[in-house]
Amino acid sequence: ILFYEDTDVIREFQAKFKTYEAKFPEWSDQTSGMHQFTIWTALEAEGLGVNLQHYNPLIDVRFQTEFNVPPTWSMKAQMVFGTPTEGPAVPDDKKEFKPVEERMKVYGAQ
User: Fold this and answer.
1) Residue from 56, 57, 59 nearest 67 by CA
2) Sequential DSSP letters for 23-38
3) Helix 7-16 to helix 24-45 angle, to the nearest 10 degrees?
4) pLDDT per residue as tens digits for the range 57-88
5) What is the DSSP string of 42-100?
6) d(CA 72, CA 28)
7) Are 52 and 81 within 8 A, CB to CB?
8) Can you give the pTM of this predicted structure?
């Protein structure tokens, strides 16, 4: 699965809503990330293994040519999926994590 953002659309919204002009590229990236996460979750729910790659810009020109992608589309990621042949290299119960309190701050909550 190839994830793209149409830069013409982003520029159109930047021109239409000047107050938020600087935010549209950031919001576009966030939207793309939400789509990637949702599709990843759906594929995993069907028992498929998923991997997200970021080979761009190395593959941009080849893919634009091969798949007739408009030049105003910017590739964000490539999602590879299929039937898992083995488990993760490091099982979740063996990964080391910092305590949640060190990774996330909540203000105003008691």
Assistant:
1) 59
2) GHHHHHHHHHHHHHHH
3) 130
4) 899 999 999 999 999 999 999 999 999 888 77
5) HHHHTT-EEEEE--TTTTHHHHHHHHT--TTEEEEEEEEEE--SS--SS-GGG-----H
6) 14
7) no
8) 0.78
